[in-house]
Amino acid sequence: MVRRLAGYSAVALAAAYLFFMYDETVTSGILVFILLYLPVSHAYLLLVKGNVTADLERVPAMGENGKRIRAGVTVRNDSRLAGIRYELILSVRDARDGKKKRKKKKYTGTVPAGGEETLWCEFVSGRCGSIEVRLEKLRVFDLLGIFCVGRKEDQACSVKIMPGFALMPLEITRKTREFQAESDDYSGEKKGDDPSEIYQVREYRVMDPLKDIHWKLSAKEDELMVKEKGFPLGCTVLIWFDIRESMTTSESFSAVAERAASLSVTLAEEKCIHMAAWYEEENERIVKYRVRDEEEAYNMVWHLLDLVPCRDIGKRDACFADEFRGLQFSSTVTIDSRGELWKDGEKPELLRL
């Protein structure tokens, strides 16, 4: 605005110089126009600045890593008199980066009287995580586009950038296949050793233990019937996220999300029910998600993108011990701040669970 006033002053001085140097009617008209333009422009801007509004109404909640994302800003003109010229300043940044890495873009247009239009900001994110789209400022220009008046908007929306869900090489051993974890759900396809749930009732066979005989049903059917116990569908594998603030960057967290997505969807494809868990420092609790299929794997990663890296490791480990006391898993896989997989303190070439 200062440069615009300086330019206006220079033009006004030049017109005044011409007015005194040349006795021409046209120079007088030019000088009068220039001198009257500033107060008329000021009055016009005061009249219309409150009639223009902008909203981040068309920002998608989700995007995919490496794909183009379109965020729309709707500009409305409540004035019934004339179209209004405007300028928007939008910024896009990774939520885990500082404000210094905020990228700002300017968009200009004209919205007709009583109408609205949508401006589209397109960007591509090369990392997984949360992207913040912020409407920072709105400027309204006068009829000739020389002077303007602006106001801060400070509207923000978050776009979660999801990783690709690709299968990864791993081996599920018999130990994990047959591991029985506590659960309220039971398999309808195979029997187990949980006496609290009956898988099926069948005729007695030689070598069946007497304790499994269903005596009431045997008396009714007039032949020995045996109860087969249920197989609980509990979480056999634990995926633990060891994400520390001192070791986490936007790039490394993107690697964490990609590795978590690949591991979880692969386990779901292998019909291996698992649990993903991480520490929520703000509420001093362990967040847990039970994953049985691809949809639940997707939901787990969606919430994982909100994870805040931990600072107090001692308190986190104490919460972990309390939360999982008495629970057993066939295998525990740790994903660290760099997105690397660890099992039993070692980084395996091929993950065997």
Short descriptors:
353 residues, alpha/beta, 5-stranded mixed β-sheet, 7 helices, elongated, transmembrane helix, transmembrane, DUF58 domain-containing protein
Please explain how this structure is put together.
The chain has 353 residues and is of the alpha/beta class. 27% of the residues lie in helices and 39% in strands. It has 7 helices and 17 strands. It has a 5-stranded mixed beta sheet. The protein has a 5-stranded mixed beta sheet with strand order 14-13-12-15-16. Helix 1 packs antiparallel against helix 2.
List the helices and strands and how they pair.
Blueprint: H1 2-21, H2 25-48, E1 52-58, E2 62-64, E3 68-77, E4 84-94, E5 103-111, E6 116-124, E7 129-141, E8 148-162, E9 170-171, H3 174-177, E10 186-203, H4 215-221, E11 225-232, E12 237-242, H5 250-269, E13 274-280, E14 285-291, H6 294-304, H7 313-323, E15 331-336, E16 341-343, E17 351-352
Helix pairs in contact: 1-2, 5-6
Order of helices and strands: HHEEEEEEEEEHEHEEHEEHHEEE
- For the biggest β-sheet, the strand order reads 2-8-7-4-5
Total beta strand runs: 17
Shape: elongated
Radius of gyration: 33 Å
Return residue spans where pLDDT drops below 50 for at least 5 consecutive residues: 183-197
Q: CA-to-CA gap between the ends? A: 65 Å
Largest sheet: 5 strands, mixed
Helical content band: 25-40%
Classify the beta-strand content into a percent band. 35-45%
Short summary of the structure?
The chain is of the alpha/beta class. It is built from seven helices and 17 strands. The chain has helices spanning 2-21, 25-48, 174-177, 215-221, 250-269, 294-304, 313-323; strands at 52-58, 62-64, 68-77, 84-94, 103-111, 116-124, 129-141, 148-162, 170-171, 186-203, 225-232, 237-242, 274-280, 285-291, 331-336, 341-343, 351-352.
